[in-house]
Design brief:
Rossmann fold, 8-stranded mixed sheet, alpha/beta, 5 domains, single chain, 5-stranded parallel sheet, 36 helices, 925 residues, 13% strand
Length: 925
């Protein structure tokens, strides 16, 4: 080790990056570059500066590598020895080998001895790197044993660490399904740092006694250790500290398998609350038992029950005498014309195509075998009580949940700008819909989310009207397409304080990945439901609630501010946790298109919902589901459990890198402005005061603070860029500039913004390509302005002004017409009656608003009522629903839109509206 202590520069760099894997890779490459230069350098002064730079980099890397199995601590001592002896040429060779091993990930497949410096060893690393390039990625070599790392927490000496590491190495056998290496740490804090910075860790063995404090002063744990007292921890017993560490590891990375090795009374320890340990070992337990137990635990997550069953089925010789000529590939392999399908897809996809539910397979509609097991594993992975696979998208998943829970005339509170499937689901269920308005972002032609205050006020209005018992569900989108994320826990807590049995449906179509990152996870529906359930069962909550209730009862219950201006707490004796989440697994995790899941955390599911849920599932699920989609959901779950933490972390890293360049590049800033937290979340909803997660001086150090406290936050992996200064609208920019010129695909635009979404498949290379394209486009806009004539410049300036300033205010939901309002005292509407009333043509007519005919009718005092959904793309949600009164604001908005795709609107005819006669008696009752 260096004679110098770790420098403040090292700590600053670690805190600044917020992207530890990128820092690790970049620093190793920079070290390799510096050593290469040093070995060829004759200038003594430059050499001294390089040696200092190398010292800093080695020091920085030693901190990071302390929490990784490769290079080992012994390997690093070898590097320091070479450095301190001034053997820079040899150090250069060793570092090159080490970097090649990291890039090729050859350390996952074989032992890399850095003390070997012969040509044969170097050739082996080069061959590994070449094989990686040929395969695309080492993981694509399916014959290789999957690799993971075992974290051992124990206050061991260097010699003891080597003994333990060697003991576990000696347990490994060629027939083992997995191969692993060992990481050892000495303290409570070091254990937490290790699982945060090292995604390879899949299992943790907590042994004997260990101190609390790390030797490093890193800020990564600041938010996670808040409220813990070092003095109290130092006086804890071995068992108490181990149990606390276990619970914190579970909070950060619940997928990690944990084991306890105790030197005390193992029976007494086993009787304590040790829910997060897979097993307890007494210190005399031999290594081979620990080895096999760890491998079995990993295997339980690695299994893919249905995918494995489908693979086995595809190998069986069968006689096909059922529907589907393509089954077993027969109709294709025998074809003289369709053989190119096999050339493109390969034979396995056809061998696995069947409509059979026996022979080792299963029925999605009534699972009893591998699909049932796969869904149980999905529930474990996503923290649900029950999970269900859906093979025709989250639109169907949403309708299943709504139909299972909602009876005709039940009132549902729903955000108006949610996905269209929810609106149609309300029609099918016969729900009485009470729309909630999200806060508008008029400058960017997009909506945010629904403020909690507005939700509470709506619930209180129903309570005053004596109709709160009719309110069944609150339906919200988390996170929105644009990346606005709710404080799910606070919404559920305060709403349950008003209505203790309220059901929550969280549409997390774009948020399936969030459960595999410790910052994101607390804002997911399943994590919140589980957290609240155990919180409300605790004695500490009862005491907290009693104290709160005593103060609350002193206030005037009739005063609206009593309920709206403070945080409410539900009664633990009345509250029921009932939460549902729908995930578009295919959107943010690995799955074939239309692969989705429904996750359930409902205390009343077995008693009240299971039968109706089954019927709703049968209603909307095909009797011939695509088994390839089911298998991909199974594999996607396994991948998320095994490497979701690593993949999501890398996704966020790439997004932060993109944002950082866009924040700091002068030319990019001129034409492309990244919307920050403060641009998308008004100050009233940012309790932390954090305006941007990024600071040019301190780096990415504010995200966790905002996510822990604020009512709404922005998912940084969704990068929304304002392009008004280009003078090009979002739709044109998407199609003509990004797609047609450079092949870059994006999903969403508004009039003056484009949304770039990173995902677990996004690479640093793809980010680099995007930045290169944006720089080229910025230069193009720059040259266009420079080369334009005065009239042309004037046109460009007008276009820029229009995109930045001529933006119509986004309209709120107007109201349902009285003909479709069951109650004059409350705002809900009977959307189903309105929808089906329009089926009879004599009840409707067309009115154009582009020629002023519709506006003239409104000026004469007529309530003009929409007879259909009207959905412009963008923004992609209904601005009008059946039964809604058309307002001047809505017409202004529609007229200002410069999009060509508006569902439910025919320009040559106009809007379809109800005749005045139809509104006199809309119901058949």
């Amino acid at each position: 080790m260096s004679e110098n202590n770790p420098t403040e520069t090292s700590y600053t760099a670690l805190g600044f990056y917020h992207k530890i894997s990128q820092l690790r890779a970049d620093t190793w490459n920079a070290l390799k570059r510096d050593l290469g230069i040093l070995t060829r350098l004759d200038d003594e002064n430059r050499a001294k500066n390089l040696i200092k730079s190398i010292d800093v980099k080695l020091t920085r890397l030693e901190i990071i590598e302390d929490y990784h199995a490769f290079p080992s601590k012994e390997d690093f001592r070898h590097l320091w020895t070479l450095f301190n002896r001034g053997e820079y040429a040899l150090l250069d060779k060793v570092v090159k080998r080490l970097v090649r091993a990291l890039i090729s990930e050859s350390y996952r497949r074989r032992h890399v001895d850095l003390s070997e410096t012969d040509a044969g060893a170097e050739d082996m690393e080069a061959l590994d790197a070449l094989n990686q390039l040929r395969r695309g990625h080492p993981a694509s070599n399916s014959s290789a044993q999957p690799y993971f790392e075992l974290l051992i927490v124990d206050n061991l000496s260097n010699q003891e660490e080597e003994v333990v590491r060697e003991a576990f190495h000696n347990m490994r056998r060629p027939e083992d399904r997995f191969v692993y290496d060992v990481v050892t740490v000495k303290s409570f804090e070091d254990a937490l740092i290790a699982i945060l910075v090292n995604p390879n860790i899949q299992a943790c063995l907590i042994r004997y006694e260990f101190p609390y404090k790390s030797k490093y002063n890193l800020s990564a744990l600041r938010n996670y250790l808040e409220g813990l007292s070092e003095k109290e921890l130092e006086h804890q017993t071995e068992a108490e500290r181990s149990i606390l560490l276990s619970s914190m590891i579970h909070e950060l990375r619940p997928e990690i398998d944990q084991f306890l090795v105790t030197s005390g009374d193992v029976e007494a320890t086993a009787s304590r609350d040790i829910q997060y340990f897979n097993r307890i070992f007494y210190r005399e337990t031999d290594y081979i038992e620990q080895h096999h137990t760890i491998l079995r635990a990993i295997d339980s997550r690695y299994r893919t029950p249905f995918f494995d069953a489908l693979r086995e089925y595809s190998k069986k010789p069968t006689g096909v005498f059922h529907a589907m000529p393509i089954s077993r590939g027969k109709s294709v392999t025998r074809s003289h014309w369709a053989g190119h399908m096999i050339d493109f897809y390969g034979i396995n996809i056809f061998l696995a195509e069947t409509s059979a539910t026996s022979g080792g397979l299963d029925s999605l509609l009534q699972p009893f075998g591998p699909i049932k097991k796969a869904q149980e594993y999905a529930a474990r992975a996503f923290g649900a009580r029950r999970s269900f696979f859906v093979t025709n998208g989250t639109s169907t998943a949403n309708k299943i949940v709504v139909q299972a829970l909602i009876k005709p005339k039940d009132i549902v509170l729903i955000d108006r700008d949610c996905h269209k499937s929810h609106h149609y689901g309300m029609v099918l269920a016969g729900a009485h819909v009470s729309y909630l308005d999200s806060y508008p972002l008029d400058d960017y032609s997009m909506y945010g989310a629904v403020p909690l205050r507005d939700i509470k006020k709506t619930l209180l209005d129903y309570k005053r009207a004596g109709q709160l018992h009719k309110v069944k569900m609150l339906l919200l989108t988390n996170c929105t397409f644009d990346g606005i994320v709710y404080n799910v826990r606070r919404v559920m807590e305060e709403c349950l304080a008003i209505k203790p049995d309220l059901v929550f449906l969280w549409d997390e179509a774009w948020f399936a990945f969030a459960g595999f990152n410790p910052t994101y996870r607390p804002r997911t529906a399943m994590n919140t439901a589980s957290t609240l359930r155990y919180r409300y069962r605790s004695e500490s909550y009862r005491e907290e609630y009693a104290a709160w209730k005593e103060e609350f009862d002193k206030l005037d219950p009739q005063d609206e501010a009593t309920w709206l201006d403070q945080r409410l707490m539900p009664d633990p004796d009345q509250v029921r946790i009932r939460a549902y989440a729908t995930h578009s697994t295919h959107k943010t995790l690995t799955s074939l298109r239309q692969g989705s899941m429904i996750h359930v955390w409902d205390q009343d599911f077995r008693q009240k919902v299971e039968a109706s849920f089954h019927e709703a599932y049968m209603t909307h699920t095909s009797t011939s589901p695509n088994y390839q989609i089911v298998a991909s959901l199974d594999v996607g779950r396994m991948q998320a459990e095994m490497e979701g933490f690593e993949l999501v972390h890398a996704q966020v890293e790439t997004a932060l890198s993109l944002r950082e360049q866009l924040y700091t590049h002068p030319l990019l800033q001129k034409y492309f402005r990244v919307l920050k937290n403060s641009d998308m979340v008004p100050a009233a909803y940012r309790e932390s005061g954090v305006e941007s997660y990024y600071d040019p001086v301190t780096g990415w150090n504010k995200m966790e603070e905002a996510w822990a406290r604020d009512e709404f936050v922005v998912d940084p992996s969704r990068v929304t860029i304002a392009i008004g200064n280009t003078g090009v609208d979002g739709d044109t920019f998407k199609n003509e500039y990004l797609m047609n010129k450079y092949g870059i695909q994006i999903n969403k635009t508004s009039r003056n913004t484009v949304l770039f979404m990173t995902n677990i498949g996004t690479t640093r290379g793809s980010i680099a390509y995007l930045l290169d394209v944006l720089i080229k486009l910025a230069k193009e806009f720059e040259y266009r302005l420079e080369d334009s004539s005065r009239p042309e410049r004037k046109i460009i300036e007008q276009q820029v002004y229009s995109l930045n300033h001529d933006l119509p205010p986004l309209p709120d939901f107007s109201r349902f017409h009285d003909a479709f309002r069951p109650s004059a005292d409350t705002p809900q509407g009977d959307i189903r009656t309105a929808y089906f009333l329009a089926y009879d043509e004599e009840n409707t007519e067309y009115l154009r608003f582009d020629n002023g005919k519709l506006q003239a009718q409104m000026r004469e005092g007529r309530d003009v009522v929409s007879a259909s959904f009207v959905i412009p793309y963008p923004p992609g949600f209904p601005v009008l629903v059946p039964g809604q009164v058309i307002s001047e604001e809505i017409l202004d908005f529609l007229q200002a839109l410069d999009v060509t795709e508006i569902h439910g609107y025919r320009p040559e005819l106009g809007l379809v509206v109800f005749t005045e006669e139809a509104l006199l008696n809309p119901s058949d009752d």
